[in-house]
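A reminder from the course coordinator: this example appears on the midterm review sheet, so study it carefully.

Given structure:
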């Protein structure tokens, strides 16, 4: 009942419908223990409840089950239980706004297609991974305008698809002493790749390499910032002597054609230390290796 109780602290009243009888009983017990007198817990099927209910609510919230009968993970909204997409006509008859908490693996384009009249999409995560994708459907929204929000540990990067399509991206080649920017997972999920370049004045390494660079530090970029210690050509001579200077380094790749493990084996280095190596492709389809250190700014 955690979502129910959180909403109840903001709403005048909340009715929660729970399919599992034990869960419904526990939620009712917890609501009473928390002195949430504005919460009503009902044991039943939400699809049947919608068809039989004659009430109208300001907002409906749904968090569909993302596990199948065999325990497999489900991602598409139409595969989850209940199927929100099939319920949209019944839901719209009972509320103005629908909030859907979905799998963080769900594609944004798929979500907009499956949930027409979406007003906002929130992609929530931390600096390491996406946690949730939340869609807010406004049944009075007939403009097809949508705002996408990427929330990372409280920071909000918001934009519209038209802003991304109209943005101009600048490409550039990083140099020793420059800065490298790696977008947070929530940003990568919604993919405002051109807008990141134009909004923050940073240069993208390659159309398919989602890393950015600048000659001076840029604040507020929604991602990690590293100082580029060295830009190394991807050449056999460089591979052979790399471990002499960097016997221990954390290796990653971005649009490189090799796995991180393969590159690490070729370099003959071990994981560890506070430096990082990223193998990447830059403009002109040229492969390079970037030795990164922590940014002290």
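Designed residues:
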């Amino acid at each position: 009942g955690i979502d129910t109780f959180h909403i109840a602290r903001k709403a005048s009243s909340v009715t929660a419908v729970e399919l599992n009888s034990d869960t419904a009983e526990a939620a009712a017990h917890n609501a009473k223990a928390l002195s949430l007198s504005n919460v009503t817990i009902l044991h039943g099927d939400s699809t049947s409840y919608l068809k039989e209910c004659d009430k109208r609510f300001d907002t409906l919230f749904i968090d569909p089950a993302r596990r199948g009968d065999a325990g497999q993970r489900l991602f598409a909204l139409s595969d989850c239980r209940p199927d929100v997409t099939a319920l949209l006509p019944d839901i719209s008859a009972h509320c103005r706004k629908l909030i859907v908490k979905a799998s963080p693996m769900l594609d944004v384009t798929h979500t907009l297609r499956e949930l027409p009249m979406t007003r906002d999409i929130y992609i929530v995560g931390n600096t390491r991974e996406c946690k949730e994708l939340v869609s807010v459907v406004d049944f009075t929204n007939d403009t097809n305008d949508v705002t996408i929000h990427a929330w990372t540990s409280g920071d909000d990067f918001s934009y519209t698809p038209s802003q991304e399509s109209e943005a101009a991206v600048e490409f550039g080649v990083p140099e020793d002493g420059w800065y490298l920017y790696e977008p947070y997972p929530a940003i990568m999920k919604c993919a405002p790749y051109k807008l990141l370049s134009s909004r923050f004045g940073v240069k993208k390494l390659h159309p398919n390499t989602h890393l950015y660079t600048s000659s001076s530090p840029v604040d507020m970029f929604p991602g990690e910032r590293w100082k580029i210690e060295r830009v190394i050509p991807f050449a056999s001579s460089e591979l052979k002597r790399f471990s002499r200077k960097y016997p221990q380094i954390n290796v990653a790749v971005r649009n490189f054609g090799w796995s991180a493990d393969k590159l690490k084996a070729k370099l003959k280095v071990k994981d560890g230390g506070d430096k990082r190596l990223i193998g990447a492709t830059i403009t002109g389809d040229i492969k390079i290796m970037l030795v990164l250190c922590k940014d002290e700014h």
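The mean pLDDT is 92. The CA atoms of residues 172 and 203 lie 5 Å apart.
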